[in-house]
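Why do we bother with a discrete structure alphabet at all? Because it lets us treat a fold like text: something you can write down, compare, and reason about line by line. To make this less abstract, here is a complete entry for LysR family transcriptional regulator. Read it the way you would read a sentence in a foreign language you are learning: slowly, and without expecting to understand everything at once.
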Amino acid sequence: MALATPAAGSGKLLNRLRLKQFELIKGVSEGLSFRQLADRMALSQPAISKMAREMEDTLGAAVFERHRDGVSLTAFGQSLVHDARLIVNKLARLESELAELRRSPIRTLRAGAPSYTGMSLLSRPVALIAARHQQAHVEIIDGIANRLFDMLMAGELDFVIGSLPSRNLSDEEAALLHVEVLYPDEVRFIAHRDMAWPAGPWPSKSCCRTPGSCRPKTPWCAARCAPPC
């Protein structure tokens, strides 16, 4: 076992980057102008512009593209959006958790799962946690796979039990996940016995439109964000 070697230049970033600069990236990605961000952050617009320039100087690349009618992110700035949102959301959650920790030393565990999965897989573990840690606080958030995955990536959940999102994951998203397959899930289509079936095998896309005996398998898994390196 060994400690990870800090990346080259990490000391410079830690010493010079400020948390409010990540809030700038998050705000611009949501369509806000520097003027609107200045109002939200209780700063002057010149202070916001200076903060943006200092961030670009530190990173050595243009993050913001200034226009006559506003501001947008460059391609490099877009690549920072996920990290910026994660940092800002983590801090917002930390603020909430600190208030909880002042009242109780037990941290809230937030899990995401569809309703059926939450009842069938999480009821026993939650009962065991409650029995062993009487002050423990567990929250189970119900939702579909795409919503739960987005909440996980935003730092709003500790882990998710359910299927992966329907869209393809980017390499950046996949690198942040620790995934463990729990069990294969079968989807069966049931119809009345008198219903006529077409002869021969069906193409898989027909299963999305017509009930039949096709049983596509979907792996269900537990996923959580891996700690940053």
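What the structure line is telling us, in plain words: Strands lie at 64-67, 70-73, 108-112, 137-141, 159-163, 177-186, 217-225. The chain has a mean pLDDT of 75.
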